[in-house]
């Protein structure tokens, strides 16, 4: 079956849908679109899907990868599937891929954009975030401009949005999630030569 990798965005109220519920949402939309997915083997078969590292509740994902296996696939399949997705969940692009690794092994970096909700952050926020990522040996890059921190990190299992918010709160920069707007701009492979995270499509 064709392995289709998509890049999707998760915005608005849909950011409050749990990461673990995404396979169900995508699969139901695929069934409504008339697509047939490949199922796993075993006593409890389910559609074969590979997702990126979990995205925290309330954090927007602007370029999230996911892999699906379908019996048949073409441009019409993409259009039908896209039309069945709920508001806030949108497929941006797709490609048929053949690499055997799952996404968890392909992905090693992400870029976050962190800004204040109602008031801009100051330079101290960038220092706290870069120090926390460096403490975990996960810092690739950090910049600050116009009240917004752009942070590129690795070790996504341990250096996630929740940990970053806790670090800011512990330092007294914010009181908690309600003071922040967080977006994960992209997820992919870190390329040291380019100094950037390379997308998987």
Could you please describe the fold and organization of this structure?
This protein has 201 residues and is α+β, with helices and mostly antiparallel strands. Helix content is 24%, strand content 33%. The protein has helices at 22-32, 75-84, 103-106, 123-135, 161-170; strands at residues 3-10, 49-51, 60-69, 89-97, 109-116, 139-145, 148-153, 180-191, 196-198. Strands 1, 2, 3, 4, 5, 6, 7, 8 and 9 form a nine-stranded mixed beta sheet that branches. A hairpin with an 8-residue loop joins strand 2 (49-51) and strand 3. Helix 1 packs across helix 2 (75-84). The protein starts with a strand and ends with a strand.
Topology at a glance:
Elements: E1 3-10, H1 22-32, E2 49-51, E3 60-69, H2 75-84, E4 89-97, H3 103-106, E5 109-116, H4 123-135, E6 139-145, E7 148-153, H5 161-170, E8 180-191, E9 196-198
Parallel strand pairs: 3-8
Antiparallel strand pairs: 1-3, 1-4, 2-3, 5-7, 5-8, 6-7, 8-9
Helix pairs in contact: 1-2
Report the C-alpha radius of gyration, rounded: 18 Å
User: What series of H and E elements makes up the topology?
Assistant: EHEEHEHEHEEHEE
State the shape. Answer: elongated
The share of residues in helices is 10-25%
Unreliable stretches covering 5 or more consecutive residues = none
Distance between the termini: 19 Å
**Tally of strands:** 9
The tally of helices reads: 5
């Amino acid at each position: 079956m064709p392995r289709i990798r998509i890049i999707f965005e998760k915005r608005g109220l849909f950011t409050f849908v749990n990461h673990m519920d995404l396979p169900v949402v995508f699969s139901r939309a695929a069934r409504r679109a008339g697509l047939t997915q490949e199922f796993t083997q075993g006593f409890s078969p389910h559609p074969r899907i590979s997702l990126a590292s979990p995205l925290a509740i309330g954090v927007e994902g602007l370029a999230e990868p996911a892999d699906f296996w379908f019996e048949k696939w073409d441009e019409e399949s993409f259009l039908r599937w896209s039309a069945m997705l709920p508001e806030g969940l949108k497929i941006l692009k797709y490609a048929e891929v053949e690499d055997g690794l799952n996404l968890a092994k392909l992905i090693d970096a992400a870029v976050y954009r962190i800004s204040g909700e109602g008031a801009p952050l100051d330079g101290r926020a960038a220092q706290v975030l870069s120090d926390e990522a460096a403490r975990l040996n996960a810092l690739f890059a950090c910049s600050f401009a116009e009240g917004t921190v752009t942070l590129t990190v690795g070790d996504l299992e341990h250096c996630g949005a929740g940990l970053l918010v806790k670090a800011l709160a512990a330092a007294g920069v914010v009181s908690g999630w309600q003071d922040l707007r967080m977006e994960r701009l992209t997820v992919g492979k870190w390329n040291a030569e380019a100094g950037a995270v390379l997308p998987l499509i």
